[in-house]
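We include this case.
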Amino acid sequence: MNCYDCLSRQRTTVAVAVCTRCGAGLCLDHAHVAPEIVHESAGTGVTAHSRNARRFTCGICHEAEI
């Protein structure tokens, strides 16, 4: 898979991640990495894990979330 943002600029760059919102392929230059709290149901409540997961987004989705 190639980076979608690079292809729109007539460059071919291998994608190293996928946007979790829109599914676009992303290279290291276009990937935005943020922590994500992982929740799961446990008994009668919801619990959060002590460590955060990684979440990759493209520039468009990153800006839309701010």
The chain has a mean pLDDT of 90. The beta strands are 17-18, 25-26, 32-36, 39-42, 45-48, 53-57. Helices lie at 4-7, 59-65.
